[in-house]
Design goal:
The protein is of the alpha/beta class and about 625 residues long. It is built from 19 helices and 27 strands. It has an eight-stranded antiparallel beta sheet with strand order 3-2-4-1-10-9-11-15, with helices on one face. It has a seven-stranded antiparallel beta sheet with strand order 5-6-7-8-12-13-14. The longest helix has 22 residues. About 55% of the residues are buried. The structure holds 5-amino-5-deoxy-1-O-phosphono-D-mannitol.
């Protein structure tokens, strides 16, 4: 994963790079580093100094190191790391310096073993265990062999590597240039007034400019203060003597509508808490301008697919990972219940490695907050190659999955910084619900009256969500009493129907940030195994809104209580049946049974958040995780 940044312009760059890295820490945070070119006068004939500072641990450590060893200069690159090749040590931290060249890299060079052996045989000495250092050596070799510029040397070096990269390089021999290149890993340029930024993601540069260029795979760029040259690098695997072809490309900047304030904590203790509380507004933003209550429909222009496709598809296949997969399960249910179209949902990481039967007549919906998840992207590319139509449901505008897709339905949640996904989830739900309504209306399987009713109630959801957010203190007490005070090591989450993906999501939230082992289960499956786990030490969170599963799940609660399990129940307001059996109860407002996931997930997010906060874990940057998983 990792995050990279670059700056070239008139300002001192170290503070800008550190600040950019701070916005990218969600991508990895086990070590970090900067390389800055100091162009102040040197002894005659001496090239400028290229200072590198690296440190292990969170960014604060790098900040301290730079305070001790300042890095003056206004051209530089930086990196925050999530270890793939080599442990998180200072030696493995980026930038990697070879000769006069420093390199930062996000991605994995797949042929690194072969290249390293080749370079070692040439007498090259490696100071790290990383694949990135290979790229630095390759550039250095091309310069030594006569490549006239850093750009040319980087092109030749990249023609030797296979795999994924977003890379940035600087050389003290060319102190007015940064070279960046992209293949599969994300990279965006920010175009300012006489200055240029490069970063793995928009929040790292949004404070300085809203005009951005999302680079495409194969792009290689020479950045100068106020000037960007972009070329497309085509590498021939056909043994031709000219191993690369380069064509100039023009990419116009697009204006991003995220505000810098959205990427700040704004007084909340953690980004995750802020993002939980942003959900009502985020949902309003997702629905805004897309829903027509007059005719119970969704604006087709927003979906981006033609009515003919809607009518002709035989099946919908939803592909996603993690939290997005849980939203996709709810989406699958709606596509079947609302639009009456057969739908399946798959983990992208499984789908792409089996011989899935997919093709014409299938519509694939790829659900991804970042739009960059490697497994989802690869699965989408496969499905597209086989003739399926692709709709992306993504949050990050211009990210890789929407670019591959035939159409994109953006969730407009704003930047999500906390590694644990919250507002991305509820906005994905709303995008999928809108899609189901749109599809049902095109296929005439959903009547106008019911469509109007669903949409009207969807518009009312933010009010109900705010009511649930008022229960934050109650959720904190439950987290303290049931999980933290009892030092619970395990927790079970149960749900049926639309509450099943919510049980999965509640369990994922708890385990990823509080490190308590948690299982989400379809409540009807409990008797097929997990019931053996239940005893007085097992907290069981039961998601039981008012829908046609209510009575069945009430029986499951009886079964848990009969084995002395401790029940925390999410129930409809005024409920007595389950409430009387449970140790702790969270009452949620009455909403349409089709829309309960929007509401039931909030107390589960809050319980997970407070359990983690009370335990003192790093809520926004849990161990071993990264926000955007660009490795397979
Ligand atoms: O960016 P994506 O939605 O594709 O990311 C998918 C998962 O990596 C992500 O949802 C992950 O599971 C989160 N940490 C969950 O909170």
């Amino acid at each position: 994963m990792c995050g990279i940044v670059g700056y070239i312009g008139p300002r001192a760059c170290a503070p800008l790079l550190i600040d950019g890295l701070r916005k990218l820490e969600y991508r990895g945070y086990d070590s970090a580093g900067l390389a800055v070119i100091d162009t102040s006068p040197t002894a005659l004939g001496e090239p400028p100094k290229l200072g590198v500072v690296r440190s292990v641990g969170k960014l604060g450590k790098l900040d301290d190191a730079i305070r001790e060893r300042p890095l003056p200069g206004n051209i530089g690159i930086g990196h925050t790391r999530w270890a793939t090749h080599g442990r998180p040590t200072e030696g493995n931290a980026h930038p990697h310096l070879v000769g006069d060249v420093a390199v930062v890299h996000n991605g994995i060079l797949e042929n690194h073993v072969e290249l390293r052996n080749e370079l070692v045989a040439l007498g090259r000495k490696f100071l790290s265990e990383t694949d990135t250092e290979i790229a630095a050596h390759l550039i250095d070799i091309e310069l030594a062999n006569g490549a006239p510029t850093l750009l040319e040397a980087t092109k030749l070096a990249l023609s030797r590597v296979r795999g994924a990269y977003a890379i940035a390089a600087v050389s003290r021999r060319e102190p007015d240039v940064i070279v960046v290149a992209k293949s599969f890993s994300p990279l965006v340029l920010g175009i300012g007034d006489g200055e240029v930024f490069a970063a793995s993601d928009v929040p790292a540069l949004i404070q300085h400019t809203r005009d951005v260029i999302f680079l495409e795979d194969g792009d290689i760029c020479e950045l100068r203060a106020g000037a960007v040259k972009i070329e497309r690098l085509l590498v021939h695997g056909d043994g031709s003597p000219e191993r690369i072809t380069v064509t100039p490309v023009v990419r116009h900047p697009r204006r991003i509508d995220w505000s810098p304030a959205q990427a700040e904590k704004q007084g909340y203790k953690h980004f995750m808490l802020k993002e939980i509380f942003e959900q009502p507004t985020a949902l309003e933003n997702t629905l805004r301008g897309r829903v027509s209550l007059d005719d119970g429909d969704i604006n087709s222009g927003e979906i981006g697919l033609s009515p003919e496709i809607a009518r002709s598809i035989r099946r919908v296949v939803l592909l996603a990972c993690g939290t997005s997969h849980h939203a996709a399960i709810a989406g699958r249910n709606w596509i079947e219940s609302v639009a009456k179209v057969p739908a399946t949902v798959e983990l992208a990481s499984e789908f792409r490695y089996r011989d899935a039967i997919i093709g014409e007549g299938d519509l694939v919906i790829a659900v991804s907050q970042s739009g960059e998840t490697a497994d989802t992207l690869a699965a989408v590319r496969d499905a597209k190659r086989q003739g399926a139509h692709i709709l992306a449901v993504a949050n990050v505008v211009g990210s890789a999955i929407p670019r591959v897709a035939d159409a994109s339905l953006y969730t407009h949640a704003g930047p999500e910084i906390g590694v644990a996904s919250t507002k991305a989830f509820t906005t994905q739900l709303s995008a999928l619900l809108m899609f189901a309504v749109w599809l049902g209306r095109r296929r005439e399987t959903l009547g106008e009256d019911r469509a109007k009713q669903i949409l009207q109630r969807a518009i009312e959801l933010p009010t109900a969500m705010r009511e649930v957010l008022d229960l934050a203190d109650a959720c904190q007490k439950i987290a303290r009493r049931q999980i933290v005070a009892t030092e619970a090591n395990h927790c079970l989450f149960l749900g049926r129907g639309l509450s099943y993906p919510i049980a999965l999501e509640g369990a994922l939230k708890l385990k990823e940030i509080s490190y308590v082992h948690a299982e989400g289960y379809a409540a009807g499956e409990m008797k097929h195994g997990p019931i053996a786990l239940i005893d007085a030490a097992m907290p069981v969170v039961v998601v039981a809104p008012k829908d046609h599963h209510y009575e069945k799940i009430a029986s499951n609660v009886q079964e848990v209580r009969a084995r002395e399990g401790r029940v925390i129940a999410v129930v409809p307001k005024g409920d007595t049946t389950i409430a009387e059996l449970a140790q702790d109860v969270i009452e949620i407002p009455d909403v349409d049974p089709e829309l309960t996931p929007f509401i039931t997930v909030i107390p589960l997010q809050l319980i997970a958040y407070h359990a983690a906060d009370l335990k003192g874990t790093d809520v926004d940057q849990p161990r071993n995780l990264a926000k955007t998983v660009t490795v397979e």
